[in-house]
Amino acid sequence: MANDLIFITGATGHIGFKTLVVALQHGYSVRAAVRSESKKEQILSAPSIKSLNPGHKLTFVIVPDLTAKGAYDQATKDAAYVIHLASPIVLKGEIRPEDFQRALIGPAISGTLNILQAAAKESSIKRVVITSSISAIIPVEYFFELEAPEGIVFDHTSRPASAPNTYPSDFYAYNASKIAALKATHAFVQDNKPRFEVTNILPSFVIGRNELVSELKDITIGTNVAALSPILGNKSVTPIIGASVHLDDISLMHVKALDPKVPAGDYIGNSDDYAGTVWQNATRIVAENFPKAVANGIFPNDGTSPTRRLRLNVSKTEDIMGFKFLSYEEQVKSVVAHYLELRGEKAE
């Protein structure tokens, strides 16, 4: 590759770190934005990075505040590509309702625009890939209040009529942040007509082994909890939309989106076709694949996790990117094997 340098933000995140690894495996050079030296060391100490031994192919730049004006102007210098994964996330109860706009929605927009503006100043950049979410294309009521009617199928062209303007919970604010950031991206492209192309990746719930999680107490932080919860005996009565994607697949999508043979656009990441994810199936999957761990009481495997059905059409993604999404079963096996590893147990 004449210029194979990717500038990646969010490199210590669930999706971000795996995307960094996949990019290196595909022969790219990576310049990773991290908030501190300790985050840099966290990446360098990961087994997959040590195994790859990337040397000069992996470099770092410290960007402590992704929302600061011009935050990425120097970091994008001489890069051919940008993968922007950094965006505010929310852990339940960590942000007060009166702070949702300041802590979630504003930073999601400003961080995205900062990347696009920095890329526009750098003539070497050919493509920008941005991590969005299916939250940006699905009305929020289908997440919490209603099951989508039988005939409704969402695809990459779907858009909610409006974003939430009141936030009964942190997820409503997160939903609004993703809608706003995607709108800002499309508006930037339309208004500025940049020389580079822009692709948005829209994952559903991302499930899979997060290598940077090294302590058992942290394994249920983030979206992996949706798969682990019934296995660990948690009993929920609140339905979760039945949409998930393997971490390996969503990371691969980000890297494949750099290929000029893949048209720029919006691509959904989701497994199991229209049937979608049935969260309760995790207990069956664990009983079949990890019977000793169940028999030994490591997994109570008696929790409940109802599903709110949702239909997503990902045929565009699979056809153009050339792979079939891994099943929910593979997602569950990935996080359960990691759970056992962190306990010092052998996976069966």
From TrEMBL:
Transmembrane segments: none annotated. Keywords: Oxidoreductase. Residues 6-210 form the NAD-dependent epimerase/dehydratase domain. Coiled coil: none annotated. Gene3D superfamilies: NAD(P)-binding Rossmann-like Domain (3.40.50.720). GO terms for molecular function: oxidoreductase activity, acting on the CH-OH group of donors, NAD or NADP as acceptor. It comes from the Eukaryota. Belongs to the NAD(P)-dependent epimerase/dehydratase family. Dihydroflavonol-4-reductase subfamily. PANTHER family: NAD DEPENDENT EPIMERASE/DEHYDRATASE, STEROL-4-ALPHA-CARBOXYLATE 3-DEHYDROGENASE, DECARBOXYLATING. This is NAD-dependent epimerase/dehydratase domain-containing protein. The lineage of its organism: Eukaryota, Fungi, Dikarya, Ascomycota, Pezizomycotina.
